[in-house]
What we know:
Layout: H1 17-27, H2 32-39, H3 43-50, H4 58-68
Helix pairs in contact: 2-3, 2-4
Amino acid sequence: MSKRKSSKSRPAAPPTVSESIRSEIRSRRLTAYAAAKLAGVDASVLQRFLTGERGLSMRTLDRVCLGLGLSLQPTPTVETNPTLQPDPPRRPLPGQAELLPRDDTRKGEA
């Protein structure tokens, strides 16, 4: 039996830092060697990262980003962009208990 996909489309998650770096290197048509030279890192380390064999240390990640002129930018959220709307609250299914926020004001009551 095959699973049906939901008809509601959810927004795509923003790319990860790793995906963004890989995409940037590909879009510039750089070889691992050329990108490594720009970043001042070992080419074999960057090659293994690009093929997904391993990740990068924070120090190497910093060097790659600086070498390629990349920086992190915040992703808009409901708090930073009021035009975005959070998912509506879900109602419990029949037979399920509804979870309510804990009321700590009744601590002294027995």
